[in-house]
Task: structure prediction
Amino acid sequence: MATKTRCHTSMRLGYEQRARGFRKLLIESLSVPKEKHSILPQGFQRIGHIVILNLRPGISGMARDIAGTVLESYPYVKTVCLNQGISGELRKPAIRYLAGEKRTETTHREGGCTFRFDVTRVMLSKGNLSERARLPGLVRPGETIVDMFAGIGYFSIPIARHARPGRVHAIEKNPVAFSYLRQNIALNSVQGTVAPMLGDCRDVLMGSVADRVVMGYLPKTHHYLPAAFRMLKHRGGTIHYHDTFHESELWDRPLDMLKNQAFRAGYVLKTVGHKSVVKEYSPGIYHVVIDAEFAGQ
Ligand SMILES: C[S@@+](CC[C@H](N)C(=O)[O-])C[C@H]1O[C@@H](n2cnc3c(N)ncnc32)[C@H](O)[C@@H]1O
Result:
């Protein structure tokens, strides 16, 4: 099993995965039966003024009480919501409002970037926090980037702010996410660098322009590899390939898949600069990322 990528500590700002003493606080504030102590949450995700709770099934009945304790104990939190999963091609979150102000649109600051969005309408992957921090450091001045699944600008905006790309083409299919993407481009003053495009990345007529293609999407990301190769420069470039694989498939299957798809598209896999597990996606299934460099055949 590969080791997880380590989070850049300064990028943890928007998150408190383990709020110190949170479980103890809940035990002291609420009358929780002893047998449930071990399944109480140890922390929460914070996005702007909003806390999102992930609760195990055995304590979901206590959601409102836990939300009340959060509001009383952390004055910077104004709204508490419950995470009930994520679904569909457009990765729509199922987030239920629980307590506090009924404002689910927020401004989230992370790694020197500002992201405005509604947590009930658009997702922000906490697993990708380290990836959002890592990518700008790889981009060389003047590169053309294609972000195939741009969302609200999770990757495009940090790249535009912290690296010196020539152009970042940010493609997004969901009109709601696209509208936030445009707002975030303006909020972060990167209008001159990031070009937003509304549409399906498989249908966009872009030409072979990219030095680097970012594929920040799950699951079945391999279905989009032919489109990624169509956007890569003929001489080659790098694809940041996210996908899900069973533990037993790491790393032979993803690497074989990349080699085969590259061959079909007229490229060869030159080097794998980085490969790591981003998070456990479901039991035994891992979200992985591979930085693969290809050359034209
Ligand atoms: C949810 S984001 C991935 C998470 C993000 N990288 C992060 O760090 O939080 C994936 C985005 O891809 C968009 N998307 C899905 N299929 C697409 C397609 N075929 N073309 C373009 N965008 C697509 C979704 O609407 C969504 O906004």
Q: What stands out?
A: The pocket of S-adenosylmethionine is lined by residues 89-91, 123-125, 128, 132, 149, 151, 154, 171-174, 177, 200-202, 216-217 (CB under 6 Å). Helices lie at 22-29, 63-73, 129-134, 156-162, 175-187, 225-231, 252-265. Residues 18-118 form a domain with the GMP Synthetase; Chain A, domain 3 fold (CATH 3.30.300.110). The two ends are 32 Å apart (CA to CA).
